[in-house]
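agent> call fold_tool(seq_1)
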Amino acid sequence: MPEPIQKAVRRFWALLDSETVRLFVWPFFIGLLCWGIYGTFFSAPIQFVYPVMGEAWYNIWIWMHIPGPAAVLAGLMMRRGGTPIAQMSTPMLFRDYMGLWLQLGGYVTMFFALLYYEISAIQATHWGASAFSVFALAPYVLGCLFLALQTGRKLWRGETLHRATRKHGWHK
């Protein structure tokens, strides 16, 4: 791979690995959870996507808005971000690890839920109708994808470190 492309890829991963999105994640996923509860129990179906999705898929799509964000929020509460590994006990490390898995599951769930909405909205409307929701949600679809990639990389690096410490006998 040419050096400029390698450099751009390294910068992308460094940006993705930063913790600068943590503050944004809370209100975003609380909002999605609130929408899931409201949309499931109180709201009438969204009229322009309901015919495209059909009743069964619409119900699945709405219900995905409850466990997806709930998994992310539970995972965030389990994590001890910023605590050095040397200061973490085995239960704390396990809790952090499981929190990452919950976050990953929630991010992937919401990526597909939001992507499905985008596709349905584009298919259901002619150009101009519902353009705001199509354009306004597109960054959130990508955001969920980036969060899933970021969390997956954290898990991959943790697994790699764990294998290396076991291989060299550095674990207790």
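agent> call fold_tool(seq_2)
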Amino acid sequence: MPVKKLFYSAILLIFWAASARQSAGPDDTRPGPVPDEDPYVSVESYPDASPPEVVQTWFAMDPGSEQFLRYCAILENKDRDHVIQDLSMAVTAFDQQGNRTGSTSSHISLLYPSSQQPLAGYLMLDLPAEVDRIEVTFDQPGKAVPLKEAPGGSQANPLVASSAHFATINNAPVVIAEVKNTLDQVARYINVTAVAYDESGSLIDAGPAYIDFIHPGKQLGVQVDLKTGQIPARVELFPLAPAPYDWINPSQEEVIVGNALARLASEEMVKLIFIIENHSGRAIASPRYIATIYDAAGIPVAATTYGETNPVFQGGQTVEVVHIAIKPHEQVSRADIQLNPEHEDTYL
């Protein structure tokens, strides 16, 4: 009986506490919800955008796979005055008989006026099949946002790619380039597409990659894997600008990179040594970083777009040693390491 009485008393106490919380009036001093520091910027008030034009499509089976299809679609926003924001795209594959063999979807954050944007990805076929064509459709048209409301408020994408070139690293084809953030905010969650052309200007390969962040006014390297068996006549890299809600104001850097040294470990490998210093008031579990290797002319020759360090305790340091593959006999001059500014979710 004492156990039963204790059990019922606990139940009554729970109900009483719940009733007290529900009946709290204007004098309730309980803390309210914490304001969202990264609010979603709604664009529902803007009209639907005219869908972009599909300028060109390309696809190829992934080498060594019977069910993974690699694709690229080049989209063009014909509107001269509006950015297309939050566009949903579907890519569907068909065989020669017109049967659907697989489909995938993708989200496009921003398409700037009078600009073309390639978007590459992977599509898993329902069953192994010979694909005859792919079709691009738009599930949601996106919103026609006035240019002044877009990041940067100008005609051009605020993320600018440069120095794109083709290389063979570890016997695999890659495109290496640099992307600069021209704004005074941190850009987050950036998708990029590298495209390769033959001498006639036709697409022969394309590949996607992801950049976690780019600091205001800074640039960093990105390396994109390709699968082509031929040397392209030309390559380009296209960053996709994130939507307005994925740009944040910079904060004081409390975790910084100290000394960094890059030297050849072999003719195809760079040994990168750098120090992470924690000046924050808490220990950080695994700061994320992006490392770019440059030659003497300032051209990026290799990059790792996602890395994590060892834990860094309050007021402490950690020394990181990373090996990065490069093209044989590449001349290495320096390394640049940048840390992700968001550490809130990685505190120990």
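agent> summarizing second result for user.
The chain has one helix and 20 strands. Residues 255-346 form a domain with the Immunoglobulin-like fold (CATH 2.60.40.10).
agent> awaiting next instruction.
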